[in-house]
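Summary of Year 1 activities. Much of the first year was spent building the evaluation harness for sequence design. The harness presents a backbone, in tokenized form, and records the residue chosen at every position. We chose the following record to illustrate the format because it has been used consistently in internal testing since the harness was completed.
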């Protein structure tokens, strides 16, 4: 942008804001020039906003801007003998702005500013006159500029729309105050605190003064008052925006005592646990009583035991543990952790990987947060039944999914290993058929001949002879294995004639792998929705969510990471408040006779 300069008069700063409705007028005969000394904002007849920003003050020079639509002109005022103490502004004819200030004796003076805008929004001329001076606009080198029609357009300013100011420390006893916000793509900010503490004291109310500066291309202009939010603050105030700098005041409640919390993860590489950790970190921004440190064991149990001991030695007041291997040697490592916590008189919350009842019951300040693995199967079965039953007219729509019109939906089950896989395999089909039966429909799920039949001697589970979970393709939780099994099945069985009418998978990875194989035969693509086999998974990974949103996968079930994180932190707050770690759990799904809490599964999408 080319800067233009203007020379005039100054003694002190006065900024007045005026909104005036203007209409177009022919360009005036007089040329551009003359000093300006106030601030104007107005709208033209088409609703376009224009600004004339003039700041007058003591020497050295003051810089101001003229903005008209997409154009901006910078003006510098120096020297002179005018003292402006107050004044009024009104619209003149056409685009004329008439400002009448008072000089130091109170005698009115008149400045007339004319900005002529063409029908295309371009500036045709800018003219300023006054009763005292007649000094023209000049360029960067001080050369007079007679024609302002070639003013370069400034970039269109985007109004800031990031409401939540992140990175402002929620005051808690012992915490260090932040001095800057978390920078966004739209603005930066500095933070100052009342009494300028180096660390926050207990029982004290603090106020943060946050000065935000818009980045190039952004403005706070037109933001409503009190637009911003700050996590943990009781009140957040800010003026209506009118510039590229704005001050936000955030007041916080009296500080509470902070406790040191250490969270131990078997591996940061686990996708599901990574989403829980991210949710916890976000939630902790508004929990000042918790100072949380996370530890990655890199899937090594010895490393995790060492990390826990170091945390205890470092003064940890709460251990939250996702064990690497809680099952080895009848729970030897989990019992070791309980012993360490008990000796140090520190509560311990185990989560995600199941800990035996006996180990949890061995210490009054131990508990477990997990899920009911059987529920994943039940919820998946519910999703399958709901999908089939929500067809408005099953008789008319049956041929879309019951390809051979025999009231039997033939499924392939892609199975993992272990009890969790056994339960998912059994209860998904069992629950779907229970709901279908209760609906009065004759429709049922039956295993496709494309499944293998477990002979009850291969060690894949305890439910081989129940008539349901004997039928599956064994993936061992491996995506490539699932893809290979599906490719082999399609060498014998068809997707077109009713051999395979529905896919059920113990996990999303296998479901997506199977979809990829079916894509090769033109099924479950975004291009042809008529060739579609319903596919159901478990976990709601990001790729699965995308596939569901794209209508290439049907549904999945999962424990919402936010729900898991909220539950863990609710128990952590019990400890911070001086209560038993398992207090206030009456509204949760709790096992009988043992401190184990179950987070519920959800179905994605919500329409199920």
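For this record, the design step produced the sequence shown next.
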């Amino acid at each position: 942008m080319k800067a233009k300069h203007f020379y005039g008069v100054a003694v002190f700063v006065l900024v007045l804001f005026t909104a005036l409705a203007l209409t177009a007028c022919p360009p005036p005969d007089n040329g551009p020039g003359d000093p300006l000394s106030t601030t104007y904002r107005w709208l033209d007849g088409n609703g376009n906003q224009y600004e004339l920003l003039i700041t007058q003050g003591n020497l050295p020079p003051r810089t101001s801007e003229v903005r008209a639509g997409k154009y901006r002109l910078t003006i510098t005022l120096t020297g002179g003998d005018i003292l402006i103490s107050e004044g009024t502004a009104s619209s003149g004819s056409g685009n004329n702005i008439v400002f009448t200030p008072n000089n130091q004796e109170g005698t009115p003076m008149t400045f007339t500013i004319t900005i002529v805008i063409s029908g295309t929004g371009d500036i045709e001329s800018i003219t300023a006159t006054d009763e005292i001076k007649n000094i023209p606009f000049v360029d960067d080198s001080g050369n007079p500029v007679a024609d302002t029609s070639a003013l370069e357009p400034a970039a269109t300013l985007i109004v800031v729309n990031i409401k939540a100011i992140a990175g402002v420390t929620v005051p808690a006893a012992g915490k260090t105050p932040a001095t800057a916000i978390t920078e966004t793509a739209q603005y930066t900010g500095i933070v100052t605190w009342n009494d300028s503490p180096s660390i926050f004291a207990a029982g004290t109310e603090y106020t943060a003064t946050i000065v935000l500066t818009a980045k190039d291309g952004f403005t706070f202009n037109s933001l409503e008052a009190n637009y911003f939010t700050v996590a943990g603050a009781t009140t957040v105030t800010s003026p209506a925006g009118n510039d590229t700098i704005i001050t936000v005041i955030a007041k916080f409640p009296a500080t509470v005592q902070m406790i040191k919390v250490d969270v131990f993860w078997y591996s940061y590489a686990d996708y599901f646990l990574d989403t829980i950790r991210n949710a916890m970190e976000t939630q902790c921004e508004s929990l000042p009583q918790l100072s949380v440190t996370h530890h990655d064991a890199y899937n090594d149990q010895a490393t995790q035991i060492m990390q826990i001991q170091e945390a205890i030695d470092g003064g940890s007041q709460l251990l939250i543990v996702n064990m690497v291997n809680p099952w080895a040697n009848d729970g030897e490592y989990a019992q070791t952790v309980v012993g360490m916590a008990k000796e140090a008189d520190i509560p311990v919350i185990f989560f995600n990987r199941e800990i035996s009842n006996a180990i949890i019951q061995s210490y009054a300040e131990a508990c477990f947060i997990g899920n009911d693995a059987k529920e994943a199967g039940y919820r998946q079965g519910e999703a399958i039944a709901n999908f089939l039953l929500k067809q408005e007219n099953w008789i008319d729509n049956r041929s879309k999914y019951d390809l051979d019109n025999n009231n039997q939906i033939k499924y392939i089950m892609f199975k993992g290993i272990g009890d969790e896989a056994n339960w998912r395999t059994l209860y998904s089909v069992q629950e779907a058929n229970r709901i279908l039966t209760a609906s009065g429909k004759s429709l049922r799920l039956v295993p496709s001949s494309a499944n293998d039949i477990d002979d009850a001697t291969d060690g894949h589970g305890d439910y081989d002879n129940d008539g349901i979970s004997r039928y599956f393709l064994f993936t061992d939780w491996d995506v490539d294995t699932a893809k290979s099994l599906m490719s082999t099945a399609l060498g014998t069985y068809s997707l077109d004639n009713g051999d395979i009418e529905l896919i059920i998978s113990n996990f999303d990875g296998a479901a997506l792998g199977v979809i990829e194989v079916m894509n090769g035969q033109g099924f479950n693509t975004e291009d042809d929705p008529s060739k579609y086999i319903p596919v159901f998974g478990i976990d709601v990974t990001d790729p699965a969510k995308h596939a569901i949103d794209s209508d290439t996968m049907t549904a999945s079930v999962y424990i919402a990471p936010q729900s898991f994180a909220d539950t863990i932190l609710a128990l952590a707050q019990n400890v911070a408040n001086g209560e038993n770690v398992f207090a206030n759990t009456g509204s949760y799904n709790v096992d009988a006779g043992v401190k184990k809490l179950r987070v519920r599964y959800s179905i994605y999408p919500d329409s199920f």
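DSSP finds eleven helices and 32 strands in the chain. Quantitative recovery figures across the full test set are reported in Table 2.
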